[in-house]
Amino acid sequence: MTDVAAVRELAERLARQAGAIQRDRYETTLDVRTKSAAIDLVTEVDDACEALIVDTLAVERPDDAILAEEGSGDDRADAAWRWVIDPLDGTVNYAHGYPRFCVSIGVQLDGTGTVGVVYDPLLDELFAATRGEGATCNGRPIRVSEERELSRALLATGFAYDVHQSDEDNLDHFARFAKRARGLRRDGSAALDLCYVAAGRVDGFWELKLHPWDVVAGNLIVDEAGGRTSDLSGRPPTGDGRETVASNGHVHDAMLEMFGR
Ligand code: IPD
Ligand code: CA
Ligand code: CA
Asked: Least crowded by CB within 10 Å, which of 79, 207, 219, 248?
């Protein structure tokens, strides 16, 4: 097995194992704490999922770098492989018993997104991509939608945890798209939003102030499903997630125009 195939297999196994923790603990009483703001939550399940993934990587991939949202990874600069992990994307949903959350594991090789796996444990949907090999959901190839008109597009977005404090709150863009698109969804998991672009369930997605762990897996899955990813000016994404636009490609320029850059 090549190194890439081994990484993909491990990423899938870890995503399924962490997803099983989420499924087991869903709708149970949780220890919930706040992070950067009163609306920015973390639960013991975020921690348990991250521990499972990081502890396994320490044994099976001791030379690789790890950037994990809750901070337990060693993001060493000298490694060729780097695992970028959101152990539970959709924590506010999870804490409220709203059934939309996932595990997101993106793996970069020399800085390039090479493997992406996103697992939704309730629907038992595993989205995955390896660079150059296409994208799949539960092993079946997926593809972005064919919609060409923004006025007929279903779009998704989200809001950062500083939305109560910051003027850069995405509400201006949200209002403009609400007047242009067929529909807008704010469903609380950026990684699944990206996979839904890849699967043609929504035609486009944008969000500000995301982080690498939200987008490294999902951006690759969109690209490999024939879509386009960029920042708000149309430049290729840097992987930091601060400006994220993803679409079926056809409505991308029309979406970019809405940001008025
Ligand atoms: C959040 C979700 C949400 C997005 C937020 C993210 P978390 O991630 O992806 O959809 O709007 O910006 O921070 O905190 O649940 O891992
Ligand atoms: Ca996240
Ligand atoms: Ca998270």
From this structure: 79
Answering whether pTM is above 0.85, one says yes
Distance 159 CA to ligand 1 centre (A): 8
Q: pLDDT tens digits for 151-200?
A: 999 999 999 999 999 999 999 999 999 999 999 999 999 999 999 999 99
Residue ranges in the chain whose pLDDT is less than 50: none
Instruction: Give the ligand at the shortest distance from the Cα of 88.
Output: 3
**What does the alpha-carbon distance between residue 124 and residue 122 come to, in Å, rounded to a whole number?**
5
Whether 182 and 245 map to the same domain: the answer is yes
CB atoms within 5 A of ion ligand 2 belong to 86, 89, 214
Domain containing residue 240: 150-260
